[in-house]
Amino acid sequence: MPILLFITKPIYVLLGFSFFAFSVQLYFYIRYYFEIAKKHRRERNNNELESALPPVSVIICAKNESENIKKFLPSILEQDYPDYEVIVINDGESTDLHAQIALLKEKYPHLRESFIPETAEVISRKKLALTVGIKAAKNELLLFTDADCQAASKHWIRQMVKNFDEKTEVVLGYGAYFAQNTFLSKLISYDTLFICIQYMGFAIKGHPYMGVGRNLAYRRSSFFQNKGFAGMLHLQSGDDDLFVNAIANKTNTKVEISPLSKTLSVPKQTFKQWITQRERHLSTSSLYKKSTLTRIGFEVCSRGLFYVSTLVCFFTCDILCLIALGMLLIRWGIQALSINLSAKALNERRFYLLIPLFDILIPLLNLSILIHNKIFYKKNHLYKWK
Known about the structure:
The chain is α/β, with parallel strands linked by helices. Helices cover 55% and strands 12% of the residues. The protein has a domain at 38-42 and 49-268: Spore Coat Polysaccharide Biosynthesis Protein SpsA, Chain A (Alpha-Beta Complex), CATH 3.90.550.
């Protein structure tokens, strides 16, 4: 009997860890990660565009991106919206970029250009460029995207702006990537989709914590009331996620999920380029509010504990192997349902068999990046925005 207790007690502990992690994972999926699908179901019968069309300023930073401006900016300039301006900030005063904008201005009189001199000595040129664009904006409502982004429809501005009312200060949009039939493209699409499911789901439930600069809107007055980027000028990144983390709350933030409101970008073409992009994004995540870090960290840690504990269960005994397999299948089913319902709402590619691989691979890559940077870089190591 003592030998039996000695054998079974560790098994009970192992099973307890696995079930705890499994329960935490189900909590996050059911409470947060189905919110895009729920919002889509609530709104799918309401296809009318709002009649209130306040003036809008679209702000785009560009650095040596004349080809992107030529290719993608017309989708922004040809929006079905009565009163808006587009301000392109030429970072570095690129002659080619200036010439391309001059050509477009002949056709589109609502296009404006501003400059950041190459000699400007600042840590974050993009924050300076955005500040110049915001100060130059004529309108209260500001809509942001990047020079390499294309609006998914002519109703992009309408769909984003319709969310503003007297209480709304921030609107979070979805910045997607063009689908390509490569493993890296699928990895990037999954990562982008899951991040969207997470930050939009949290925002819908009253815990907004980030946005993406490829598709983000907020009030000009909110920017100045927050003293702009004053608290983050020592960082290259953070003009989107840290700014939203600082000003967004459960009453002043809304999300927009219509496929008409998306922006589309070309994904990175090499794994090294994508890792560099991930490094830049992760460089600011440690500066989120403590409540945000706790919430996200709890989800990631429970995911890791779930995989480790269930893996050990597979090599313990037959009954634990069956229990672990059952929990894995249940979680995968709920996960696939959440991700693909959200993908349907956002008109994104679907994922099935690749979900378990990406679900394990991406956190491990993020962890390796964080450890690498902690060891090999100084505390304030900076990442250039272009």
